[in-house]
Amino acid sequence: MTLSPKQTPNLAELPQLPDGYQDFLSEVSTLLAAARKQAARAVNTVLVATYWELGRRIIEFEQAGKELAGYGEQLLQRLSSDLGKRFGR
Questions:
Q1: Rounded Cα–Cα distance for residues 69 and 26 (Å)
Q2: Please, which residues have CB within 8 angstroms of residue 13's CB and are 6 or more apart in sequence?
Q3: For the segment 35-58, what is each residue's pLDDT rounded down to a tens digit?
Q4: pLDDT score for 83
Q5: Nearest Cα residue to 58 out of 87, 78, 85, 43
Q6: According to the 3-state scheme, what is the secondary structure of the chain?
Q7: 4-21 burial code (b ≥16 CB/10 A, e <16)
Q8: Does residue 75 contact residue 62 with C-beta atoms inside 8 Å?
């Protein structure tokens, strides 16, 4: 049976589902949802750690061993522009 994207299947034409299919579908759906949630948490953890490390490195580079950073050097604007060219927004 070939369906166009807007067609809905005629339930009478669908094959009979095996016993327990709905439970099986629910289990698989739960597994996929949990995996997606776990993947999102892992990505967020890595991003937070990466951004923290980027901030630390920017401060170290900008201060160059001094207690305070120099001002007027526009380091962040230049870094933002250069990273945007390499990685996009």
A1: 56
A2: 1
A3: 999 999 999 999 999 999 999 999
A4: 95
A5: 78
A6: CCCCCCCCCCHHHCCCCCCCHHHHHHHHHHHHHHHHHHHHHHHHHHHHHHHHHHHHHHHHHHHCCCCCCCCCCCHHHHHHHHHHHHHCC
A7: eeeeeeeeeeeeeeeeee
A8: yes
Distance from C-alpha of 43 to C-alpha of 39, rounded to nearest angstrom: 6
14 Cα distance to chain centroid:
37
Task: Please state at what angle helix 75-87 crosses helix 21-63, rounded to 10 degrees.
Answer: 140
What CA–CA distance (Å, rounded) separates 34 from 12? 33
pTM passes above 0.90: no
List the structure tokens of 61.
Answer: 């580079």
